[in-house]
Amino acid sequence: MLASYFLANGAQDLKDAPALAQQAAPVTEQVVPVVDGATPDSVRLPRDPVLWVRASGVIQLAAGLGLATGRFPRLSSAVLGATLVPSTAARHRFWEATDKAERREQLTHFLKNAALAGGLMIAALDTAGKPGLAWRTRHATHDARREAVLLGTKAKAHLH
Predict the structure, then answer these.
(1) Residue 144's domain spans which residues?
(2) Tens digit of pLDDT for each residue in 65-74?
(3) Which Pfam family is an annotated match for this chain, by its short name (predicted)?
């Protein structure tokens, strides 16, 4: 159910990219130079907001399908959560609305996205009762050390 919003939103991003790019332009104009400055000189980011909206749509569709089908649900949830930040900043700038009704509507959408982000965070961190990668890595390291000590002890015993 959580994925359904992103499947619909991703499809809308692809369908209405030129219109949505007008909303996205103020965000891309601020974010692209910052990210561009943090990447190697050989990497140049596109500045076209239509391309960014379409890329967001493709990412939301792919990650939404991943979440909906249970394939890589944690990764899909994390990716979807990451797409919410620029999307929310572009579409729901309630602090800029001058009309009281418009401000209330944008605030409602902003808070809805914040709630979605919370749900995605829970889904991204949920291991469904299975140990996560960090836990498995720690325990594999611990087990490997224990095995090394045991092998060392056995080797010393054979030498004596």
Answers:
(1) 132-160
(2) 999 999 999 9
(3) DoxX
Q: How many CB atoms lie within 10 A of CB 88?
A: 19
d(CA 115, CA 78): 14
For the record, the structure tokens of 49 come out as 């907001």
* 73 and 147 co-located in one domain: no
What CA–CA distance (Å, rounded) separates 160 from 148?
19
For the record, the structure tokens of 77 come out as 């949830």
Residue 130 clears pLDDT 80, i.e. is over it? no
In order of 26, 99, 137, 152, 153, the CA distances from 147 in angstroms are 57, 68, 15, 8, 10
The dihedral built from the CA positions of residue 11, 85, 21 and 106, taken in this order, carries a sign that is positive
My answer on whether 29 and 63 are in the same domain is: yes
Cα separation, 84 vs 121, whole angstroms = 12
CA-CA-CA-CA torsion for 98, 104, 106, 108, nearest 10 degrees?
A: 170
- Quick one: 138 and 117 in the same domain? no
Two structure tokens written together for 76: 């899909």
pTM score, two decimals?
Answer: 0.70
Which residue type sits at 104?
A: R
Supply 159's token pair: 């030498």
